[in-house]
Amino acid sequence: MRILIAEDDAKMARILSHGLRDAGHAVDVVGDGDAALARASGGPYDALVLDLMLPGRDGLSVCRTLRESGSQLPVLMLTALDAVDNRVEGLDAGGDDYLVKPFAFEELLARLRSLSRRGGPARAPALRHGRVSLDPASRGVEMDGEPIELTPREIALLEVFLERPGTLITRTVLLERIWDDRYDGLSNLVDVYVGRLRRKLGSALHPWPLRTVRGAGYVLDPDD
Q1: Average of per-residue pLDDT across 48-62
Q2: How far is Cα 5 from Cα 17, in angstroms, rounded to an integer?
Q3: Above 70 in pLDDT, residue 185?
Q4: In terms of residue numbers, what domain contains 155?
Q5: DSSP E strands: which ranges in the chain?
Q6: Predicted model pTM
Q7: Cα–Cα distance list, 217 to 21, 190, 193, 220 (Å)
């Protein structure tokens, strides 16, 4: 997923961004409400992690404005206020979920996975192609029914290909979906990770059917 974090506490923003990147997500960070609204309104995000106590426009105002504009971007609200009235106010403003600080990072990840499933198109219980299957909920990958170890980034890359067999996927699309603003279209990260996937999912006798389209991107040949 590509996630926007709106958090004015620099330490908390670093913790969130580092943890989410380690989990294989692309992350952008803003520190005030106006920037959060501008980025969330026009950016290719799968979720917004929104602190309610932002300078300028607060988180409630950001969320209300997004909903009034018709945005269905999943919003996970963060706050140090744990009174029932505060939670109700956040949800009434259009938030999809609410997490009180301090929280366990694994719970944050679980809530984001849940929001992703609710906020996007319906997904099959598992994505399958030939010998390979991926469970979007557990992030588990199997080959011929046996678990295979992939890094979070490799799993995120594999998920994009499994979602769109037969479709040309450009490097720019992959960078936007899996990495973030720290990388540009000239980065060779995509090629490096594609190479790793090919080695892990294929062999000389049975290569993984991902074709490179020179100057354009990649196509995972449809499963016959």
Answers
A1: 92
A2: 8
A3: no
A4: 127-220
A5: 2-6, 26-30, 47-51, 75-79, 97-100, 127-129, 132-134, 141-143, 146-147, 169-170, 210-213, 217-220
A6: 0.65
A7: 23, 10, 13, 10
9 in helix, strand or coil?
A: coil
Q: How far apart are CA 140 and CA 125, in angstroms?
A: 12
Pairing of strands 210-213, 97-100: unpaired
Q: Are strands 141-143 and 132-134 parallel, antiparallel or unpaired?
A: antiparallel
Q: Are residues 17 and 109 located together in one domain of the fold?
A: yes
Q: Is the peptide bond before 152 cis (omega within 30 degrees of 0)?
A: no
CATH code of the domain containing 29: 3.40.50.2300
CA dihedral 166, 172, 173, 176 (to 10 degrees): 160
In the three-class reduction of DSSP (H, G, I as helix; E, B as strand; rest coil), residue 51 is classed as: strand
Separation CA 223–CA 151 (nearest Å): 24
Task: For residue 9, count other CB atoms closer than 10 A to its CB.
Answer: 15
The residue type at 112: L
